[in-house]
Structure formats: structure tokens, C-alpha cells
Amino acid sequence: MEELKYRATQVCRRGASEEIPLKCDQVRIFVVDDQPTIASTLADILRLSGFDAVWFTDPRDALTAAASDCPNLVISDIEMPRFSGIELAIQLKALHLNCDVLLMTGHPGYLDLVDRAKKRGHNFRVLEKPIILQKLITEIQNRDGGTS
User: pTM, whole model, 2 decimals?
Assistant: First the structure.
């Protein structure tokens, strides 16, 4: 947990010359799911677990917010209309934001999209729905910043 607090106070980078200091010492998490009940409930649970969580139902809104408010972690559903969680993850990394991405899905068929992204050099962790809270918390605590 100390590692997470340390990383939360680090600086996120957008491009080589611009640095944006984080505003708090909590781990900042964006939860993205097109189903408002899932997004808000997961964010509430994460807040109760000590994280600074904000939820979005439109991945484009999350991407816009991430440009000015650097999250440490984005937890996103894969299957969403108009803009998938994988597209969101790739665009976040294209902004050179120093944040981890954890994808979730309730449909194993969407793991093909994860495999295609992997072949293009993007390696994202995936949790299957329904989310087991303790597994999610452990995943957050054990993240190493190694997603790309």
C-alpha cells in the first residue's frame, strides 16, 4: 500500500516536456463502464476501500478528463458502444499518461480484441466479470505500472 501512495505522489507525463503533479496522495482511479450502475457502484466500493475513484459511462469523457486530471489507474469495461475499452486504453497510452490500465469483460469472446491489441504491442491486464472485489483490490495493490 505504501508503494501505491508513493506512486500517487509521482508526476505523470504528457509528452517529453510537460509535467503535471498529482493533486492528492490517494491513488486516482477512473472507472469506465457504459452501464451507470456498474460504474458508480464500483467507484463507490473503491472509494470505501480508500481510493480516489471517479466514474464515467462514456470512454471519450474519461479520455478528455485524463488529459487534464492524470489518473494512476483506469479500470474499463472492454465492450462499450462507439468506443471500446481497448481503444480507450490505447489512446491513453498514446497521450503518454503514466497510468495503468485494467480491462474487464463479462464476455470471453472479447478477449480476441485483447489478443489483437497485444499483437500490436499493447499488453493490458484483464479481469473477468463478475468482478470479485478482493481480487480487484489485490490487482490494484499489486500493479507494477508495466502495462503499455
Answer: 0.76
